[in-house]
Design goal:
Two copies of one chain form a homodimer.
Chain A (H helix, E strand, L loop, with lengths): L1 E4 L10 H12 L3 E8 L4 E6 L3 H9 L2 H4 L1 H6 L6 E2 L7 H12 L6 E7 L5 E7 L4 H29 L1 H7 L5 H11 L4 H8 L3 H15 L4 H10 L7
Parallel strand pairs in A: 1-3
Antiparallel strand pairs in A: 2-3, 2-6, 4-5, 5-6
Chain A binds a DNA duplex (30 and 30 nucleotides) through α8 and α10.
Pfam family, one (chains A, B): Autoind_bind
Protein name (chains A, B): Transcriptional activator protein LasR
GO biological process, one term (chains A, B): regulation of DNA-templated transcription
Amino acid sequence: MSVVDLSKLAYPENNLRSFLDSVCETHELDYAAYAGMNPIAQSVHGVVNYPDAWQTRYVEQGFQTRDPVLTTAARSIAPVDWQRMRGDEAFKTVFREAHDFGIAEQGLTIPVRGPFGDVGLFSVTRNCSDDEWSKLKSKILGELQNAAVHLHDHVVHSHELTRVLSHPSLSSREVEILQWIAAGKTQQDVADILNISNRTVEVHLRSGRSKLGALTTSQAVGRAIGLGLVYPL
Amino acid sequence: MSVVDLSKLAYPENNLRSFLDSVCETHELDYAAYAGMNPIAQSVHGVVNYPDAWQTRYVEQGFQTRDPVLTTAARSIAPVDWQRMRGDEAFKTVFREAHDFGIAEQGLTIPVRGPFGDVGLFSVTRNCSDDEWSKLKSKILGELQNAAVHLHDHVVHSHELTRVLSHPSLSSREVEILQWIAAGKTQQDVADILNISNRTVEVHLRSGRSKLGALTTSQAVGRAIGLGLVYPL
DNA sequence: TTCCCCATACGGGATTTCCCCAATAGCATC
DNA sequence: GATGCTATTGGGGAAATCCCGTATGGGGAA
């Protein structure tokens, strides 16, 4: 899982770091972070406005792969308030260190998902009492949701050109046949259904595997599902 | 794709229809609608507070399968303002009819996605000028985002018990081996990796297929991904 | 003790998939 | 016309998967 620091990329009109800064300023937050995950590309894209020293420490410790905040939020529909995780040992481990860098335990992470399995995790943090946090949160949660959605949308669409260039373009026949395979049909079944030869089915599957970068048809099914090209049935 | 009307199910503590009504009342909207899609179950769950006559007409015309608002929002990360779609012929077709039932063209649809491919589409509509709509929207969008997320979360978790009861329980070995298969390894590869015989790999795959109700291993991979048991790699 | 699930393994053989090669035809674009 | 993509089809054969049955042993619950 490679980590790509988005703040290092050139975005002439927009600067994600300053977006995070403005969210913090508007809502009186300490820090904000965005992590975008693309399960197919196995990459994590991130931009944060945390202290540099904490960023370095975080990556050194490999927290991005075992931060319970990220793993929990990645499985959640609704925002995850960090308070929920105070009993978690891994959370304690991360925040024992984070404290030394001035990062508070008071925060929340908002997951946003796109149609191709991509996930954006937008986190904000503020050093304050539980009472203050509760009040602040209910006041700004809607705006944070909004910010999270648009940030993730922006990141995904900023990569759209790259995605189009790297996004496999399966022909409609290839997709159709993969869908039948995902539904449990054999190649001969699919040939019968579509009134073509099973040799033709084989050709389309091979082409589809190649475009998806899959070694086996099972892997191709998985990747196509991850890309939203076909559905599990 | 079966259509399940959630307002007809018994929810003693919560009533989704009154949730929609309260959102409309709070934000001075005319109507609200929620449509949840579960690709595994191939079902659409919906609850609306539109006039009954329009609901009947909508289903009669089969609009749920070709409403451009739904199809566009299902592909979007960010909320979709219906203004964007006024040039679309299918949109015009739907709203030519909707007008007769008092449904305005001024509205938006918010997509929310869960970790298992589920999608919730939350729509609201208000009969007003473009100016008024623009003002109202920017004022309430955050709260609507919030409402959308929690509504979808609620629906998904209301079905959680059912899901647990029907959720296949794969052994850790079965999951592990399916993950390797999803990663493109052959059975022999997996046997080498795990230092077991390929006959054992075969046994676990067969068991896994049986539990997942899959006819082929490719289908099992797909279903396991859909259930969040393994990931596309 | 019995039962169930899990993990491990095998026999024998049928079926299916996949590899690598070949080909034609239609359509769109430059 | 040349090129690229799509859809269609086939030969020959190796590799892999799958079917249906068998077995042992460990651990946990009733």
